[in-house]
TrEMBL record:
<dbReference type="InterPro" id="IPR019277">
    <property type="entry name" value="DUF2304"/>
</dbReference>
<dbReference type="Pfam" id="PF10066">
    <property type="entry name" value="DUF2304"/>
</dbReference>
<feature type="transmembrane region" description="Helical">
    <location>
        <begin position="64"/>
        <end position="86"/>
    </location>
</feature>
<feature type="transmembrane region" description="Helical">
    <location>
        <begin position="6"/>
        <end position="25"/>
    </location>
</feature>
<keyword id="KW-0812">Transmembrane</keyword>
<keyword id="KW-1133">Transmembrane helix</keyword>
<protein>
    <submittedName>
        <fullName>DUF2304 domain-containing protein</fullName>
    </submittedName>
</protein>
<keyword id="KW-0472">Membrane</keyword>
<feature type="transmembrane region" description="Helical">
    <location>
        <begin position="37"/>
        <end position="58"/>
    </location>
</feature>
Amino acid sequence: MFLSRTQVIVALAAVGLALFVLDLVRRRKLSEEYSLLWVLATVVVAVLGFSTPLLRTITRALGILYEGSTVFAVGLAFATAGLLYLSVKMSRISFENHALTREVAFLRLAVQELRGDAAAARDRGNA
């Protein structure tokens, strides 16, 4: 089985990315939730990079002319799906942030009203 230079580069890059992701998880800079997706994607790309018959089969099935393009198409599909997932997550966090900000404002107003009532009661008691 002969591997082209592109396959070797892609496979080694995928292995390097997997090791980098694992290091980020170890240093607690990436949560396990996202690391599983990254490790899965790098394993898929590495398998495609090292397995020429599988890569050719998928390339023919998709109607792509060059095997290297299949690997990059898989990576692009993963990146697009990842960006969409992160956009949905950021939107949800933004809505939650707005709700929390509103709630803190109402609580701050209630505290100020209670302090105002207490100060007014003290003033009435002193007079």
